[in-house]
Amino acid sequence: MVQYEPVIGLEIHAQLRTRTKLFCACPAEYGAEPNEHVCPTCLGLPGALPVLNQSAVELAVRAALALECQIAERSVFARKNYFYPDSPKGYQISQYTEPIALGGALTIDVEGQARRIGITRVHMEEDAGKSVHGAAGDSLIDLNRAGVPLIEIVSEPELYSSTEAAAYMKALRDVLVYLGVNDGNLEQGSLRCDANVSLRPVGSTTLGTRAELKNLNSFRFLARAIEVEIARQTSVLDGGGQVVQETRSYDPERNLTRSLRSKEDAHDYRYFPDPDLPPLRLDAAWISAERARVGELPRAKRQRYEAELGLPAATAATLTAHPATARLFEAALARLDQPVLVANWIVTEVLRGAELHGIDARFTVSAEQLAELLGLLADGRINGAQAKEVFAAMENTARQPGDVVAERGMQRLSGEALRPLCVAAIADSPSQAAAYRAGKRNILGYFVGRVMKASGGAADAKAVSELLEALLAE
Amino acid sequence: MSIEQHDVRHLARLAKLALDEPDIPALATELARIVEYVAELAAVDTTGVEPWLPGAVPAAPLRPDTPARGLSAELALDQAPRRRERAFAVPAFVDDE
To answer: What pTM was estimated for this model as a whole?
Structure first.
């Protein structure tokens, strides 16, 4: 039987984090009352003219630069014509033959291997409205989302498994969230994915007929939908049939894909340049300046943490999973140059109480508080147990660790302060002292334990051990 | 240019129009005449002529990303043939997007 390999390309729509819509000043925020954010432009009322949002252009360019694309100095908005109840104008303003960016790449890591996945294009477009069904013979339309700015990022068909497809979407999300271009909220639909899936005989270089899977809105659904679609196409081909080019929808409850429209109904969008919008022209010098502002991307950051800071891969991955976590780490590191100590405290203590939702992040301590606390720990002024106590005391407060330490009398005991405790421990246990002196050296731990207990945990165990040895040798 | 009856049906489907079957042959003839008329433009030699840009504006003006109040939901919905509470109401359809 012929062996097939899947070939997958992804089209990802990412909502740009602007305050207003793409062509009008209506707020772009999510979650308002239905039809609260509408105006003549996004309602498609006669005579209303679109004016392009500068911030949307900047975010689109920033994303495209991070994806190593060529930015077009001239791009053109086109009308994509179709009639649908959630599109009040009868067309969507998009970009077609002259998009804002072409030809980039995104590197993903799958099973320890780095792979560069080609990006065909990035174009800007407006979102449609939202429809709600099931209201007694009616469908209800909310146009708050109509006109919200999106970029569509189209990959080359260079992904060869559901795992690679999910890794690509995850890597893309990380980049977009890092750049502040997108809030990363899949559940709110601010990042949406369609997948083109086809099969070809292993060894073949021509692409098979593809099916387009719509709206795969979680990493898990994306992988599962691609897997069941691969299985479906394999059984069609194995049965001597042919894959039909069509759009299919994934049904997560039944774990299958089903056909949405037949070829006969395939859309004929009749694109043409929007006469209401002159071409978008970007200055080469401005593009260069934007390129300089892109900064370090999550994958490069992760690699740097491992190679230069000596962090384990898992720790580096945790610290770079959210830009705010990486910022906190770097801000603390700027104050206390102890990467492993700072990293371990963030991964264990800080992230435990952190709230990370999409691009929003809230930590219970500041970088300053954390660095000062860990500085006290590193200097031996408090021990690990005390550091945790101080940490808990300053969470969600503006209190400084030094103040908490002073207030609780936590100064760690060392040097001469330990002597009376050690002398007392030996005096209280003459038989153990005699045993030690007779050569039972491992009994030292017994004395250390007593001194630690007597100090309420504040003694420096190493210093206690050294002092006891000296006293017992007298 | 000839317009076949199946072209008319295809266009009607894209335009979400419900045509009466008996009207289709006449529409095919009329559409063909319209297309022929517009096609006369193709006779003009446009070699070396730059595409016309709207309003002679060379580049799209950009707008600062500052929110402004548009229409109230009440006023917006008032323009619609049908509404249900705060939403525009349309005959029920199944999402195919």
So the answer is: 0.82
